[in-house]
Amino acid sequence: MIGLDSCGRRRATAAAAIALAACGATVRSALAHADLRASEPAEGAALPASPDRIALLFTEPMRVTSLRLLDEAGQERPLRREGPRTGAAAETRASLPGPLPPGAYRIEYRGLSADGHVGGGAVRFRVGNGGGAR
């Protein structure tokens, strides 16, 4: 940095650092994809009684393409999806047609973020005094 005194060099260095940080923040937000922010029931919850519905809340809109509820034997339990199935949303809900018996359960989901990333995961919970969620 020719022609800059020590104060000028510090200012130039600080300006460059701020510009790089701003670029990094822009790249991170452009590369971000939907992650699970919260769920009902919550991960690892031990519920005294069956929930009447489930909900998944994401950090950004996600088009959930698969939503399943499995019991501890791996058998799929019926769900009734609520709301539109097309397009992306930051929340996905489903109701249960009847109460779940005591036991361990796993909600599995898979979907597509607005940025094109495929994502998915599982939420485990327990109803009554059943065994631990697998």
TrEMBL record:
Keyword check for Ubl conjugation: no
Transmembrane parts of this sequence: none
Bias type Basic and acidic residues, positions: 73-84
UniProt-annotated location(s): Cell envelope
Organism of this sequence: Craurococcus roseus
Protein name per its UniProtKB record: CopC domain-containing protein
Domain CopC span(s) in chain numbering: 33-127
Lineage: Bacteria, Pseudomonadati, Pseudomonadota, Alphaproteobacteria, Acetobacterales
Region (Disordered): 73-102
